[in-house]
Amino acid sequence: MKLRSWLSVMAVALTVFTVQAQEMTEEAIKERIKPVGSVNIAGAEAQAASGNGGARSGEVVYNAACVACHGAGVLGAPKLHAAADWQPRLDARSLDGLWQNALNGFNAMPPRGTCGNCSDDEIKAAIEYMIEGI
Ligand code: HEC
């Protein structure tokens, strides 16, 4: 009887410990992913490329936040540097109209392309990069 209750206490303690250890690991992973993806690499590249006080270049923002859909045209997203995809939109709304839609979301296009830490100007730079040379 005594041994049994001791065992159940140990079982509960182990469970609690395991759950806590898992939570800490997830937190640690999130912390590790965040600076690498969004600040350190992207920010450093952008500063090197543009030198404009820390704003990321359009290319860096595109590769971090837009390529997943705009690279292959997922869900009908206009593709990188594809005039046939972009020109009709530019004719209809001009760059400012596209910019507003990118900030606010537009059909399957999520607001800011889900880039929560992108400034308005960084979103604009990413659009300018996507339509460059069309
Ligand atoms: C989850 C997929 C997805 C991501 C990520 C995404 N887009 Fe889009 N985007 C779309 C889709 C789909 C459309 C086409 C919407 C339509 O015309 O119905 C679109 C359209 C646009 C348009 C055209 C809007 C217009 O008025 O015609 C712009 C500009 C744009 N995206 C910018 C961006 C930028 C900048 C990023 C990255 C910061 C980004 N998108 C990330 C899916 C995405």
TrEMBL record:
<dbReference type="InterPro" id="IPR036909">
    <property type="entry name" value="Cyt_c-like_dom_sf"/>
</dbReference>
<dbReference type="GO" id="GO:0020037">
    <property type="term" value="F:heme binding"/>
</dbReference>
<keyword id="KW-0249">Electron transport</keyword>
<feature type="domain" description="Cytochrome c">
    <location>
        <begin position="53"/>
        <end position="134"/>
    </location>
</feature>
<keyword id="KW-0349">Heme</keyword>
<dbReference type="GO" id="GO:0009055">
    <property type="term" value="F:electron transfer activity"/>
</dbReference>
<keyword id="KW-0813">Transport</keyword>
<keyword id="KW-0732">Signal</keyword>
<dbReference type="InterPro" id="IPR009056">
    <property type="entry name" value="Cyt_c-like_dom"/>
</dbReference>
<dbReference type="InterPro" id="IPR002323">
    <property type="entry name" value="Cyt_CIE"/>
</dbReference>
<dbReference type="Pfam" id="PF13442">
    <property type="entry name" value="Cytochrome_CBB3"/>
</dbReference>
<protein>
    <submittedName>
        <fullName>Cytochrome c5 family protein</fullName>
    </submittedName>
</protein>
<keyword id="KW-0479">Metal-binding</keyword>
<feature type="signal peptide">
    <location>
        <begin position="1"/>
        <end position="21"/>
    </location>
</feature>
<keyword id="KW-0408">Iron</keyword>
<dbReference type="GO" id="GO:0005506">
    <property type="term" value="F:iron ion binding"/>
</dbReference>
